[in-house]
Amino acid sequence: MKQASRQWFAKLSYHFKTCGFSQSAYDHSLFTKIFKTNITILLVYVDDIILAGNHLPNIEQIMQSLDDTFKVKNLGNLKYFLGLEIARSREGIHVSQRKYALDILSDSGLLASKTCATPITKDIKNMFEDGTPLKDITPYQRLIGRLLYLTNTRPDIGYAVQFLSQFIQAPTEEHLTAANCVLRYIKTAPGQGLFFPSNSNLQIKGFCDSDWATCPNSRRSTTGFCVFLGSSLISWK
User: Fold this and answer.
1) What does the pLDDT look like over 108-151, one tens digit per residue?
2) What share of the chain has pLDDT > 70, as a percent?
3) What 3-state DSSP class applies to 181?
4) Using CB atoms within 10 A of its CB, is residue 31 exposed (0-12), middle (13-18) or buried (19+)?
5) Is residue 51 a contact partner of residue 31, using CB atoms and an 8 Å limit?
6) Per the count of CB atoms within 10 A, which of 58, 154, 200, 201 is most buried?
7) Number of helices (H), then strands (E), in the chain
């Protein structure tokens, strides 16, 4: 039934709450349990669950509770989740989307192409001018959608992707060429991602910048920001 997934999540959420977890108001699939200095975190995607924390007995307790109620399977340390690849070491945690990026390059036929030094050309104002419309816009739309998901670990392509997404309803040959430039830039380091060091202070630092009315159509500015917790990038747009 179409209500099955909703009922499943409702039952799962109820179980977490009976175990002392609090549901996030900003992301309903995120549950946290804090007791003194101990914290346990649950992230749910359908029937896949990421369990993390800083107190092993608490983690083992919730795993046993889940197994008693739902008969879950423990897959060990997190290595791959929804296209995200997680590598752990004593220095910290590295999160990337290497396979996902290579799949995009392969599907686009650019796996053997030359690399590009930057994700977007300097002269972007010409892309607002009339160009040759694409006969089939579906591949362009699909490519931009996949690149948007790649920005989860690649903030360096965030500006280029958001710019190209503005033309998703009526892309031209120039926009497709620019999108291929992003792919050729990704090819230089497909395994690049985010690194979260194990030893870092808890100081929050934020940086922001904006251009000045660069859009020739709307005369609006583009603003960007990034927030660091110590030396770990935790938010950007």
Assistant:
1) 999 888 998 899 876 776 667 777 888 999 999 999 999 999 99
2) 97
3) helix
4) buried
5) no
6) 154
7) 6, 11
Q: Using only the alpha carbons of the chain, give its radius of gyration.
A: 21
Of the candidates 88, 19, 82, 17, the one whose C-alpha atom is nearest the C-alpha of residue 49 is 82
pLDDT of residue 125: 67
Q: What are the structure tokens assigned to 194, written together?
A: 């985010």
User: Beta strand pairing status for 30-35 and 22-23?
Assistant: antiparallel
- Report the pLDDT averaged over residues 6-34: 90
48 near 81, Cβ under 8 Å?
yes
What is the band of 213 on the pLDDT scale with cuts at 50, 70, 90?
Answer: confident
**pTM confidence score:** 0.84
User: Structure tokens of 54?
Assistant: 């800083």
> What does the alpha-carbon distance between residue 82 and residue 47 come to, in Å, rounded to a whole number?
12
- The token pair that represents 29 in the structure block: 């699939």
Q: Decide if 93 contacts 195 (C-beta within 8 A).
A: yes
